[in-house]
Structure formats: C-alpha cells, structure tokens
Amino acid sequence: MRLKVVVALSLYLLLICSAFAQAPTSSAALLPKRDPEAVKVLQGAASVHGDAGIAGIRDTKALVKITSYSADGTPVAVDAVIISSGNSIRIETTGSDGGTQAFVANETSAWNEKPGAKPEFQPRKSVAPIGNTHLPSLVLNADIKNPNSDVSFKDAEPEDAKGLKSIVVTRHEQDSTSGDERYEVAINGVSGLVQQLIYHRHAPSNLKISVPIQVNYSDYRQIHGVAIPFHVEQFIRGHLASSTDIKSFDVNVGVDTSIFQARVN
Q1: Range of 232's domain?
Q2: Which residues pair with 79 in a beta bridge?
Q3: pLDDT digit string, tens, across residues 69-103
Q4: Fewer CB atoms inside 10 A, N or C side of the chain?
Q5: Domain count for the chain
C-alpha cells in the first residue's frame, strides 16, 4: 500500500502545477505583445468561471480519488485530501499503517513529508506559483492583470474546428534559471470554460529541463458561485498519466495555515 501511495502521489505532483513552460532564453527587456481580442476571451472565461466568487474564497478542502496509470495502462487509485489557501497547497494520503504522507508548497518552498523523516525539499520553481488547479481561472486572472505577459491567439483563426479558442501566454521572467514561462489555454467557445491547459513542468534537479504536460478539465459544477472541474486528466507526452475525481469540495473551512510550514524537527 505504501508503494501504491508513493506512485500515485508522485504522479499527482505534476497535476498540481499551474500552467508554465520553458522558453530557451529570458527576454525580460522585450515589450509585451497583447492582442486585445485574446485578452477579451480570457476575461470572458474568468467571468464564466466565477471571478467574483473566487474573491470570497479564503481556503478550500477537497476529498479526491487520484488514479495513476503505469506504462502499460494499469491503474493505481488512492484517496487523498487537497487543502489550499492562497498560493499554498497541501496534498495528504494515508497508508495502510495509518501514517500520513504529504506534499506541501507555499509561497517560497516545496517539500515532501513522510512519517518520522525530515522534509525533502525541492525548488519551488519546479512546482510553480500555484493557487489550486481546481480553480484554473486563477491562472487566467494572473495574466489578465499582468501587463508584462504576452497574450495572443495560437492560430490565425481564433476558433478551431472543435470550437476551442486556444490562446498562448508568455510570462517574461527576470529569473534566468529557466527562461520565460509559456503556456497554452484552450477555452470552449460555447461554454466559455477552460477545457485544456498545455505547459511544461520543470525538473527539480535542473530547472532548464522540462516535460510537456496536458491537463484536461471536465464535469464542471458550481461551488460557492465558482465553476469547479470535478474530473481532471493529465497527459504526459500524449499518454494518460493520472486522473483526479473530486468526491467533495468545501470552501472557507478555516484552514490552520501552520500546515503549510515545514516541520524540520
């Protein structure tokens, strides 16, 4: 059971990343290129997702089932608790021995917690400055409000044959360790909801190495006036790596923020 939990949780760590990608060089000195029509689409999606309701959410707690898939497609499922507050997140799973294993990320640090062991830290940049991937509009809001982000349609035609509006966003970073950050977001032309994010996750051992990740969102439901995707799938290089199904999702539960601090003793 412990190996089962470790495998499933390790794969899920990719899923919690916000939408980021590696560019070959830093170009912080470049003037941003913002297509007004593309920005308008992002603003519309943020509104559909419940931009106003998000402002009233202080923290969230979700009970989920995480299913990871091996190379041959064999599924491994575990139950987990995902707790978030601001840009901090904590994912907990419990082994058959009753011990709790967790992955935690706050504003400055990220680490794994295991019973009886010291925290195992990794670069925060490899996780990305996240809010909660079950609130994908947080990603949009960040770049709608950031005048230094490039925003443009991916193709000459704003909407493809599937009815998706794909927009490319580039964040010009001062930090040269991984270059600019780039991602693609696909918005359903009918519902206005985020249907897909494509980004790269940076390797903790070398931030200049990255792997392409595609996240698909579906089964949206209204919670506290906000559209929450209750089913999320993650693909790595085109292969289904994991899926997450929400069992329950609560907001403003009064999270003790000390759970987002590393216990080094």
Answers
A1: 2-254
A2: 65
A3: 988 889 999 999 999 998 889 999 987 777 899 99
A4: C
A5: 1
